[in-house]
Amino acid sequence: MESPSESQGGRIFTVQDPERNIFDQRHLEYEVQQNGSPIPVFRLPYSQIAAQTSLASTPLRQLLFHPPNNPSQTFEAAVVYFRAGYGPSDYPDASAWEARYQIERSHAIKCPSILTQLAGAKKVQQVLATPDDSSNPSILSRFMTTSPSETTVLSKTFTNIFPLDTTPSGLHARKIALDPELCKGYVLKPQREGGGNNIYRTAIPPFLNSLPETHWKSYILMEIITPPPVHNTILRNGLVEKGGVICELGIYGTCLWDCNTKEILHNEEAGYLLRTKGDKSEEGGVAAGFGSMDSSILLNKY
């Protein structure tokens, strides 16, 4: 087996097996290999991480990838891009957690690292967006270097998000969630991604009552955002649908930093994702079949 110093560099995409959401992944693969880049890209099923990778016995702990079609060749993974590892089905047993731990311990750049992945969880959104109260002030100011007035302005762009724990904010949210009228303006969200996991409006009280109360704190309660619908045409599941639609705009960002010095090396906007769904649909996930990809047209209005 080659030593890390003799290994070629490579980039790994961890994927599900089978993978349904392959098309945008391929576009990213082609993009990073533009201009004749000599660094290959490997698609690695999440379930095969332990079998096809190892850690070098060096202080840097390089992540070494061993292609199944040529196990004698070794590539040092410079970047691991996670397109799997976000749902419970990716962690069926202890070996899957050990595989993730192996990557996290390695020298490879993780996109995202486990800490970055957790930072995007619904619970973190809730902690940042829960309205102030005297017993539980907002922690948003801890992450803002601007003046308190600018922090206040920023917080006004948030919708209300509450915990469902036993804090004053959580107890207030429980009353809303269990009230058959008040709950109509809210959505209950677990710590999941990908669409199809949320509980909406009048379905919230019976759902909570079906769970042990000790499980409630794993959910957050969010006030539903109701944008004005517009009329458009959607191609969804092979069918053309006409009628009212609602758009959701997401902004991509790229950030690279030194974990030891905390120095931010790169932090820039990197495009957008516009999802459009019918105005009668609660969910909006594209891969889950609820929404469609869209593009925007910016108009100047005078």
Automatic annotation (TrEMBL):
Pathway: Sulfur metabolism; glutathione biosynthesis; glutathione from L-cysteine and L-glutamate: step 2/2. Keywords: ATP-binding, Glutathione biosynthesis, Ligase, Magnesium, Metal-binding, Nucleotide-binding. One of its GO terms (cellular component) is cytosol. The keyword Transcription does not apply. Its EC number is 6.3.2.3. It comes from the Eukaryota. InterPro entries: Glutathione_synthase, Glutathione_synthase_a-hlx, Glutathione_synthase_C_euk, Glutathione_synthase_N_euk, GSH-S_sub-bd_sf. It is an enzyme of class 6 (ligase). Pfam families: GSH_synth_ATP. One of its GO terms (molecular function) is glutathione binding. Its cofactor is Mg(2+). SUPFAM superfamilies: Glutathione synthetase ATP-binding domain-like. Belongs to the eukaryotic GSH synthase family. This is glutathione synthase. It comes from Glarea lozoyensis (strain ATCC 74030 / MF5533).
